[in-house]
Fold this protein.
Amino acid sequence: MVDPQTSTVLLYKDAETPMAPSSMAKLMTIYIVFEELAAGRLKLDSRFRVSERARAMGGSRMFLELGSEVSVEDLIKGIIVLSGNDACVVIAEGLSGTEEAFAERMTKRARELGMTKSVFKDASGWPYEGQYTTARDLAVLSHRTIEDFPQYYRYYAEQNWTYNNIRQENRNRLLKLTPGTDGLKTGHTEEGGYGQATSAVRDGRRLILVVNGLTSMAERAQETARLMEWGFRESTNTTIFRAGDTVAEAPVWLGAQDKVPLVMPKAVLVTSPAGQPPSPRVIARFEGPIPAPIAKGTKIGTAVITLADGKTMEYPLEAGADVPRMGVVSRVGAMVKHYLFGWLS
């Protein structure tokens, strides 16, 4: 379990252990589809033809008809809501020609996203020798999906969908059970058991959870709901600095002002146990005095924040104001004063 806003790991168990991705592999398939849409290389109303290989897929299906042409938007819903293995093959063949080529693309893109221990062999997560991922990698992928494609992420919150007059429920029961849940994807294979990548938001705070290896759909729903409630109940985020807050002031050399404020360009939040204030120690590091002129927004130094548990984080500091140079006469006077009194001291 991670808090993506602060990059804090709240719960860690076997997160780097290779495991069968099952249908959670579909997260990678959909990520690539979203990339194609965002780049304008694909449209929601683009259509792909259903091959015999796609129609013959077993497991969870969208029940596509051989030779029919299906819109990308319907395929997205078929993959996310219905977990359609047939829809995954249609997408893979439509984008890369073959499912094998698409799987290579999935693995390559996963590496680029920082998923260092994932190898995909098909588009659906159908059991295949040499196909694996980790809980950590799926958490990375979940976060990137949410951050990179807010315009498309909404599909993950759909609770049911009807295609070809067949209504199917989303297997992510937390969409109904746990307040704030808005995605992502369940999975199941004999090898991997029942798993799920889940995300929920409450009061503007998001948590991402990945579990696998559970014994039933019921246990998966109960355990993910329990852990998500634990995460929100037992931890909290505190704003240490708001965007634009002054952290320190740095002396200025030959400037119209003697000092320049060093500000935090973005808000800084930290995660801590509920009821325990983080009590951070903050040190501003910079090389001063800062020579004028100084433009507002120029990176000047670094804020080093140390939490009570010893965790250290570093954030850039920027000039919070413009500081022009002194006039010629003032600069000469300041330099004389500096060298004279500096020599006498």
